[in-house]
């Protein structure tokens, strides 16, 4: 079937099998390999992209059902070698990635949280943790990721981040 | 707040010890790093593996014709196609014991064929492969391969595999017993236990777990008929070791015809250092088809094929006095090696565990015996903290049992038995000689930081909210820095376990460091640059680090057992020192002064007492590149290599305290506070180590609360996807309170000890101790992991285990 998608602001037209997964189209069809595949049952979140603004697991979305949609992948967040987004920069400062395999999915999922809360109060630590339950990370133990989100939200609001390494007793001195 | 008991590198004012941002992170955060699944060589064909659906059976026939006819299929291969390929060897058989293995042609222990043709021994055992134009076509064709099986009886537990009449896995291994291995002094220990005022015993199950890096494994083989060279891209922790194993011991091809490249690797925690059938298969099939062949595992595939961890059933005994002095510890363990000996699994299940059981305690008599058995399960291997976590678990559970038996505070019992500071180096009587330590300082710091003194008040408060609060302590010593090659050979390891580094200074003063190790997410590029820059007195921004390609890097074993910073980083430091020494010798010529008047400082040289007579690092680099005016005994260029083999292991240690709350209605256990004080000697980059410690603790909490690789009676892995195998999620853990002590190791020039995985060692013990503490008034003395709500709820209702 013929399908049109808008991927990172670029219109893409192609024909796809009805059972093709969005993640296959992105990785194999369009060469956007920043989106990762960590499981085959929709549990790990490595494949998260944004579809019409909402973060979705692209291994659970059929390409056909996304037809006409706006897709944002990690490649669309910044250019290759380009300046990091506010969220990415905050994660960098908190060392919120180790092997990096879960990271693109985390950045995409957390991007929605940061956007959704941009005009209100910053998300609390439990809210951030709850938001992250769809993304598995085996390296970091999540703490640096949570601190990164806190830092990103605080930077956005010109505040000192609540849970950052610089400001809490939980901040380990290792 | 940090107490430093030795020279901390940060004190020298250099860049080592500073929390520099990881230079790898931006690329990872932008999703630009290339993992094996992202490699797309022109003309690539795709491989899929048919794993056995049954745990134990004789293969009567395999019919591949239908699969061969399917669209896109290029080749279907079975064991018969690889008759001249050697089986995958095991290179760590426990030292000093009689060991039974199915044979490998080189007289090595081995057994696992690249594909099995006659008998399958676990679900997932590879039987056939399909190569097709697309991954989907390859996977679809697997379904068209018809295999006829004659079922055989199944055994999945080590103790049951050793019983009379148990199903037999390997003809060469009578009774399924791979090895009976011991360490320590049996007679002395038995006597101490017999004579003791108090003895306590426990039967423990250290359940099987699955490492579960988020990146599944993958491999791309690329044979070049023009040169006869093979290239393997693989998600590996040790490209050099894989090259050795594959070239010399499996394929039987010249070493210099195989290049192994580790691209960015998405976590490993022990599992990606092993040799798997897919590695030789993609190489052989690439040669056969004249195209690159690529294979990427699925999660379910990984769970049924990649080495699993832990899996000991133990009977353990501790003896002591009424006033809290431990006099003996004894462990009898049944270790489940799975269906085949993995690359180093048998060593992990014996020496790493057995020699570590006495932990931080000064115990007069200790003994451990391990029966390592084959069963119809996935092969056993390393899992973050492997061996040492199993040891800490049994010891720390025993100490709590003992404390409760004699009515003494568990912290007080531990404090009383710590190895005293004056006793280092300390021979633990089980085969390890601990290098250095200040256990009292470390222990006291953790106890204080955790607020241990206030726990009874907190327990009372929790009860008003329908919660039972419990506190659990666990200490540990983790052997790291594998290793001294000769010592490892005594343990039964085949192969040198040293590490190496090369530093090349370019004409314009920039520096390239190349190491044999290979990162799986530990920011080696950042830390090794810090080491070189610190030694040379230059800006780390001018240092690039390369690793993970056997054609470009010097040899090295790779990253495992938390070894890179205490094995590869010292090689970097020693190489930098060689360069400095050369610059001093050559500097005498350039400055026109005797050698002993040349001072190397801050990345430049000057004449002693005459700072005007100087040359910068960049000037020296250019001068050495030109080589003009150098005497014959000084070679031009700045390019040095070091192979570092330490005199002995190093022994990080620490104390963790878990506080849990159990919901009296649901049995749910929540970790509400967690304190960890770890001692990894001198640390190169505290920010990076902090991340590893946090991740390690969460991994350990996973074993305590969530994770179990569960096999049903037919040998089927029930928990074969991430819906059934529960990994910790962000909402499962609180922030931790972390601190450190610093006791440098004397066994390497950086005073470093292992760090990466050490904090995985104690959490399971700390959490189970905490839960048993919370339930102790109900008479609960032990609960097996994982501590699921149902299990805890049953105990709350008074049911026994
Ligand atoms: S790949 Fe795991 S959730 Fe999509
Ligand atoms: S950084 Fe490795 S899985 Fe998250």
From TrEMBL, chain A:
Protein name (database record): (2Fe-2S)-binding protein
Residues forming the 2Fe-2S ferredoxin-type domain are: 1-77
PANTHER family associated with the record: OXIDOREDUCTASE WITH IRON-SULFUR SUBUNIT
Swiss-Prot/TrEMBL keywords: 2Fe-2S, Iron, Iron-sulfur, Metal-binding, Oxidoreductase
Q: Which organism is it from?
A: Streptomyces erythrochromogenes
Does the keyword Iron belong to this entry? yes
Record's InterPro entries? 2Fe-2S-bd (IPR002888), 2Fe-2S-bd_dom_sf (IPR036884), 2Fe-2S_ferredoxin-like_sf (IPR036010), 2Fe-2S_ferredoxin-type (IPR001041), 2Fe2S_fd_BS (IPR006058), Beta-grasp_dom_sf (IPR012675), Diverse_Oxidoreductases (IPR051452)
Origin superkingdom: Bacteria
Automatic annotation (TrEMBL), chain B:
**Domain of life (superkingdom):** Bacteria
Q: Which SMART domains match?
A: Ald_Xan_dh_C
Under InterPro entries, the record lists: Ald_Oxase/Xan_DH_a/b (IPR000674), Ald_Oxase/Xan_DH_a/b_sf (IPR036856), Ald_Oxase/xanthine_DH-like (IPR016208), AldOxase/xan_DH_MoCoBD1 (IPR008274), AldOxase/xan_DH_MoCoBD2 (IPR046867), AldOxase/xan_DH_Mopterin-bd_sf (IPR037165)
Give the span(s) annotated as Disordered.
Answer: 1-24
Q: Which UniProt keywords apply?
A: Molybdenum, Oxidoreductase
Show where the Aldehyde oxidase/xanthine dehydrogenase a/b hammerhead domain sits.
30-153
The record's annotation in Pfam families points to: Ald_Xan_dh_C (PF01315), MoCoBD_1 (PF02738), MoCoBD_2 (PF20256)
What is this protein's name? Xanthine dehydrogenase family protein molybdopterin-binding subunit
Q: Taxonomically, what lineage is the organism?
A: Bacteria, Bacillati, Actinomycetota, Actinomycetes, Kitasatosporales
